[in-house]
Amino acid sequence: MTERAQELIGLGYSASQAPFLELAALQSGYFTRSQFNDCIERCCGAMGQVFIERALEKGHVKCIDSFGGRRLYQTVGQGLFRALGDENNRNRRSHRPATIRRRLMSLDYCISVKASTWLLTERDKTSFFSGLGASEEELPSELFGGARRFFVDRQPIWIRQGGVPVFVFIDEALKGLSQWDAFLRSHRALVKRLGKAAFVFAGAQPERFVRAERIFGRVITGAGTSGGMDLARLRRYFEARRRFEARDYSSFDQLRLDQLREDRRVFVGERIEGLYASWCLAGDAALTPVTASEISFEVHLLSHCHEWVSPVYGEERRECDAHNSIANKAGARGGHGKA
To answer: What are the structural domain ranges in the chain?
Structure first.
């Protein structure tokens, strides 16, 4: 049990209630009674009601019952967040239904994983990665009113046994995968610094997993469909880099310059530099021992997408499915035409 959970026990919560409330307050800001039941591994019963009544009585949560007749709870108490050491946490603010839905999916993931070490606050995350040698410039950040904030996406991060960080992306399954692409790019400098890490693409639409993995390989590791490093792409990068460093610019147009710039961001680190030096001396024979990166990709299928929270989600989901269906049919027609 964490020190923060111990503080909640001091506020009158039980040993089973405190860890859940810590996780819900700092990671999600919202929860349902069924999520508490899942966390303590009880199908139903009075324990969930006792917990909710206690939290309501203390003013640590408020009830929201306007979503399809279902009840939702938000952690809002200043005393609660003071005990958690994060009094100004923005989870106390009101959020749009779409944001609430993603937060609930995030909590579902956290409950199912049952990790022992979570990085739940901005301070947790910056302190941990700074301790591993990462600079502020390498951390995902955005500017708000002139102030730089880190890890503003509030996606789950936990630490696997052996100290390997796991970066989780909760997929809302709306439209394309541009948010996933942007998430990877914002974390790219950090994971290249770390050398070892795992990315988890978690969602309730498994048909998106294959596309997510392709984007991961393109943006983070330069991996091919087999999971190993894409040797053809690596070779092209080395060739382009050698020409560029030799000031042979005749073969570079804007597209090739953009590709070289992107490859420089993907293929970084001492290992790549050593391979490049060996390749310059020995040619393609130096690429024989190349294997997969130690930055891995995983998927996690969520059981719920909580569409009842966001009335517009169903309509957006139908529009997305219709768009994908049209695209798939067009692709099929194109394939038949080529044959």
So the answer is: 1-94, 96-229+291-339, 231-290
